[in-house]
Amino acid sequence: MKYLLSLLIFCNTIASTTHAQSFRDYDKIKSYISVGGGINSNTGLVGVQFEQKLNDPFAVYAGAGLGTWGYKLSAGMRYYLTGAIGSAFGFGFAQATGLNGLTGKLEVIESGQTIEKEITYDLKPINLIHLSWLRYWPMGKRNRFNIEFGYSLPLSRAENNYELPANLEPSKTSKSVLQFIQPGGITISISFNFGLAERNMAKN
Question: Which of 49, 91, 117, 151 has the highest count of CB atoms within 10 angstroms of its CB?
Fold first, then answer.
């Protein structure tokens, strides 16, 4: 709660110090490169994203980053409610690539006994649908800061997303740990957006 409160105060500070900036200038920018991350973010714990404006109010994006389940790849679309500064809704798809051949100690059940054992296991790829609401604030003349809240829905059951050696099964504790680190659930993330090329705007 303290973290969220601090984040909102920070966002309001950014907004108040740049209030004089013409929001119309941001609508001239057609491309952004973003750096950010968070919990169940499109780009994992940390990553980069490219956004390209289409005809207003739509934009498309593609991202890549590193998360708790390997690399995170994503693509989708955004619908801006009030131009480049303000609110937007997002819809997209993402994949956590997983990791093969991981070696480490894991609590498992072998021959009916629960033991801790060093094993080699695989984390399988997970596909997700991503729905979110985003809020953008101006930073300087062409850059933005945003927060994102939403939900990331995995398209496979948690117990099907990893594979242990044939004679072993995870204990209840290991199942909880493996499920906890899997992507999916509530999304909370932040990003810094750097404006690139501008587009021509029709004069009033």
Answer: 49
DSSP 91: E
- The rounded distance, in Å, linking the Cα atoms of 71 and 46 is 10
* Dist CA 142 CA 129 (whole Å): 30
Residue 23: predicted pLDDT: 56
Element (H, E) at 44: none
- For the chain, what percentages of helix, strand and coil (3-state, to nearest 5) are there? 15, 55, 25
| CATH tag, 29-195 | 2.40.160
Contact at 8 Å (CB) between 125 and 94? no
The model's confidence at residue 20, banded by pLDDT at 50, 70 and 90, is very low
Pairing of β 169-170 and β 99-110: antiparallel
Mean pLDDT of 101-114: 88
C-alpha–C-alpha distance, residues 169 and 49, integer Å:
38
Reduced to 3 states, what is the DSSP secondary structure of residue 195?
Answer: strand
| pTM metric for this prediction | 0.78
